[in-house]
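Example (one chain per record):
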Amino acid sequence: MRSKPGVTRRGLLFGSAAALVSACTGRSAPVAAPTPAAPASSPSSLKASITIHRRHSAARGRDVDVVLMTPDGVPSTGLPVCVALHGRGSNARTFLDLGLPAALTAAVRSGIPSFAVAAVDGSHYWMPDGDDDPHRMLTDELPGWLSESGLRPMTGLLGISMGGFGALNLARHRRDVTAVATCSAALFRTWPEARSRHIFASQNDWTAAEPLRHADELPTRGLGVWCGDRDPFLAANRKLIAGAGPEVSRITPGEHTSEYWRGVLPEVLRFLGPRLA
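Predicted structure:
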């Protein structure tokens, strides 16, 4: 059955993270009412349009949240799309907690071209794991969900931690992707490092997917890499920078934390916007 369009509410950044969805397989659900407004002088007072759809993913064998975020006051129809991939142990709504909606509105108000960000629930470093295949969900199902919402196909990828691995791996196979940004990408220089995560069934599976093993297949133009200088994946990100030669790379003070990601997201979004067309 075709999903009914979701109902969009204009919500405040930090109140959006607590939005409730009345789950119904294959149907969209509206975002709950936002919390009271913050003072106008606060960055959190910036609004954005947020819609949360509940979709059934045959590729994953379960229902997933699809969180659509567009700048305040901008019609969503026809916008280019950046798909945001979350980290391990998180979900699509994590980007609401990180302040992405307000940061997106602020970026567009600063002059970059308008675009939408779509986040969806994933797992397993965005790789297949038995009957659960988040990679196939992104390639085979998400395009239709975006189209039903009046959005253009994805041309950008944003990945945080585990999502950075997924974004880079997906970008290797999608030549229609024109912009990729990673924050604290969870990458592995050696098989022992990867094996300790208990994600990959074998060394061959890891080798086939590990972005550091395929740096020459990654885009250089339109690739941005951000990492904190006290991040446990710093050495792996330095190897990514050396091997892929990204257009922009930033090693700045910070750890593998939400505080670091909140701090760099404004710059990341300003990097992505002009490169999505």
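Caption: The two ends are 32 Å apart (CA to CA).
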